[in-house]
Design goal:
Strands 1-2 form a two-stranded antiparallel sheet. The protein is 43% helix and 29% strand. It is an alpha+beta fold. It has one domain (3-61).
């Protein structure tokens, strides 16, 4: 894979990570009674024009 491809992919994934963390933090702040609770989380990644559907699941503990 080319360096340009690698850099564009890393830039996209960094954006996903940063904006996702911000969205999760905001959602937790605006929801009552999250402390001590565990929430199921799922991310679905697709790319138009490519046969890709990547699912990541996990758990997030409330603050």
């Amino acid at each position: 894979m080319s360096d340009d491809f690698n850099m564009s992919m890393r830039k996209f994934l960094k954006q996903v990570g940063v904006t996702s963390q911000q969205a999760i933090e905001e959602a937790m702040r605006s929801t009552e009674n999250t402390q001590g609770k565990t929430f199921d989380a799922k991310v679905v990644l697709t790319i138009d024009g490519v046969e890709l559907k990547h699912v990541v699941t996990g758990k997030i503990e409330g603050p």
